[in-house]
Each structure stands twice: as structure tokens, then as C-alpha cells.
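Many introductory courses stop at the sequence. We go one step further.
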Amino acid sequence: MTDRWLAALLALAVVSSGVAAVAANPDPHAAAAQQTATTTAEPGGQFRLVSTASNVPVDGAGNLSLTFVNTGDTVTNASVFVESPNDSVRFGRSRNATQSVGAWDSGERRTVKFGLVAEEFAETRSYPFQAVVSYTAANGSRVRTNPFTFGVQPSERILLDRFEVTAISSNVQAGDSGTISVTVENTGGDVSDAVVTLRSQSSSIRLGRTQNATQFVGEWPSNEDVTFEFEATAGNDTVVTSYPFAIDIAYSEDGTRNRTQLERFGVIPAPEQTFSLGDLNGTLRVGDEGNVTGTVTNEGPQAASSAVLVLESSGENIFPLEEEFALGNLAPDESVPFRYRIDVSDSADRGPRQLSFTVRYENQDGDSRRSKPLEARVDVGARQDEFLVDARNASVGAGETAAVVIEVTNNDDRTLRNVDARAFVDSPLSVEDDQAFVPRLAPNESATLRFRVSADGGALAATYPLSLDFQYETPDGESKLSDTYQVPVAVAESEGDGVLPFADVGAIPVAIAVAAALIVGGVAIRRWR
């Protein structure tokens, strides 16, 4: 044994170190121990190992589960690395293993589960394992915690008179169903008509609708391994620890019916299936349609088939065009991007909104399941005009025709295409060519529009409105019509003898009032056909 592992053993024996060591024990209360020491890493992450559980028998296979809590800041790309001191108890063929965790929120508990193997020469004593949490901090740096030390103690070989349990595994998840697999070796002579009975000794995990289940074996030759799979369901309050089960076998040998004694062992369920949202971004504005985008990550531990992201709640004045987004099949740790088109009503207020999502999926048995709610916060921006309109040259003499030059700028955050501008005026103005076309306008890009505008010979020297509408296409191909924009056009007094060209002088105040109302109120008649 190396000096490093000797030091770890000594550290494990010191009570004041606060390190938890959990031996294989089918009692769930005895299997969960508290890890009081907190490992701090810089920057951001603080983690505490709150419980461990293992159920590996000598000369057999089992599981190890570790539960950590993040008491620091939220981190991403987290993973847990574990290492065994020697080959007596190891992770399959290797003495170390790694499990990805992904995003890890502040205050969140996460459980990781590893497969273990104990050799025939392993001892029923506590072996000092180590675990390290690594993650990406908020500033982008990659950080590793100091090692956590904990104990793993193989249990005695599970012997049933002339049979031996050599492997225990489970894919049963908390709050879901799955399979408990038990591999048994016939260490005696040939038997027949064997019936293997598994009994759950905890109400947290049921075998079907009861606490007992049986499997039948016809001929069972000597030295042959047989794996039995039992359907099981774990309740919503199930925690990831070792739950007690008992097994016995009835069999026939040389015409005599026999039954083994009951033997107990532990089964460790998998953590509850979880999903997370990431890379959330929104382009919502009052009175407009925008997008909410992000990614969904299957945090595991199992694959999720035919997954669909469902927008369950969006609040008032928020109207998604579709409430479901198909994600497909998601392997553990796999992420898929999503996008929702959402319309915000004119009566909405700017500010943050809380969106609530769930993931609907099929579990490993093909049963439909739904995740816990996934909350997301997005901002709704203030109302924003699609275009900015600026008159560069907007004057014409009474009785004359001139080019009115207008600069239009795309004020949207999307590239707009096929921008068709229409101009319309009221007397005393008239417009000869009332249409202008811009094939494409990127965000903040400007284009120059020209319209030939005429003023009646008898027009008063005043400012009159030229109204503009824009019909355009968004990037997803939707055709939209903008609000009406007003551009002031100045009419200069015509050169002459100064006689007003009106038959009725009393009509002058009325004309002035109408022009003023048009400018102030923005009144315009749309002429789209």
C-alpha cells in the first residue's frame, strides 16, 4: 500500500475530519451517512458530500452512489471523478471512473451512481475511496475541488446453501419503474424446477403491485450463472441509498424438494430523471412577435425517448404560436436546441416574464412520463418601431413637383426582406410614383427612398403629412404590415402678386386647421390593396 493511501486510511479513522464512510448495508438509514466537511474551490463552487451507499459483495458486482450538494454558485459542465485505492474493489476493469453531471445549480443536490466489482480476495473492511468534483466556473475557468475521502466496505458473499448471488444491479429510478437484476450461480449439483423468490423489505420499492415476485428455472446445471430480472417501482419519496431485499430459492434435486434460507442484500435505485434548460435567450417586445430560444439537456440517468418540450405557462398577454417542440430521443447528457415563436400583445407591459416548461418523454419501458417543471425567466422589451424614417429632402413649391428623399433604417434585430414602401398624401399634395422597393435590409442598415410629390398651385405655405406604410417579410417568411409613419413635407409659397387663390377667404382657417390635425394626429388613410 502506498504512503498516500496509508495517509488516507489514517485520515478516515479521525472522527474530527467529518468524512463519512458507509459500509454495504441493506438498511437505508445505516447506508446513508452525512459528510460534514465542505470542499471549497475557487471561484464559485462549494460542494458537500452528504451521503454514500454501496452494495457490492465479495467476489461479486454491485453499485456505489454518491450524493453531493452545491452550496456555492451555479456552475456548468460539472463531473464527478472517483478513484479506488487498489484492485480489490474497483470500477469494472479500471480503478477510476467519471460521471458527467452538467449544469449544477446553487443549492441543488445531485446523485451519481457507479458500478463496482469486488474481487474474490477483497476483504470485508472499509476501503478509502476518493472523489473530486470538477466544473466550469462563471468566469469560464475549469476548477477541481480538493478530494473527498469516503469508505466502501464490501459485504460478505451472499450464499444460499448451494447458490451464490454474484451480481446485483438496478435501473429503477426514483419516482419511476425499472428492472432489478440479480445474477445467481448454482455452486452445487444439477437441479430442476427452481423457483427464485425476491422480497422487498421496504415500502419504498415494490415488485409490481406487491412486495414479492418469483422467477422459474427449469433445468439448472451445476456452476451455471442465471440472471433474474424483476420489474420494480420506486416511490416519489425514494432516495438514492441501499434498500433491503431478501432472496430464497426452492428447487428439486434427486426427487427431493428443497428450499434455501433467506439472505438479504441491498438494492440502490437510480436518481430521479432530470432535465435542465440552458443558453436561454429571448427577443420579445410589446406589440410584436419574437423568439425564445435555448437548449434542453437530459441530465440522466436514463435515456428519454420521443421527448417533447411543452410550454405549460407563459402568463397574460403572451401567446406562443406553438406550445410543443419535438426534441426526439435524448441520451444522457445530450442537449438539443429549441425555439418558440411568441406573440406579445399591445396591452402587455415591458419587464420580466416567467415561463414554465415540462419535458414529456417515454422511459426505458416505453411508458409516458413528465418531468418536473423547468422554470425560465425572459424579458419583454418596450415597444419598438420596425423602421426609423428620416426626411432628407422634403420640400416642394406650390404648383410644382419635386423629389422627396427619405432615408429608412431597419430598427429590428432581424434581417427584413422584400420591403415594399407605399406613400400616400391628401390634398393639396399628390404623389405620382407612390411605391418604392428594397430587397433586403439588415439590422441597422439604411436605404434611400424617392417619391415625386406635387403641390397644388393654390396650396398654402405650410407643412403637410406624407404617410408611409411598409409591407415586409420576416426571416421565417411571414408577411407583415408596419404601422403608419408620418413624414412632414414643407410647401413653399408660390411666386406671384400675393393674391390668395381662394374664392372664399373664410375657408382659410379651416384649411389650416385640417392640415394641423393631420400632422398632430397622424391621420392617414391606408391605400394597400
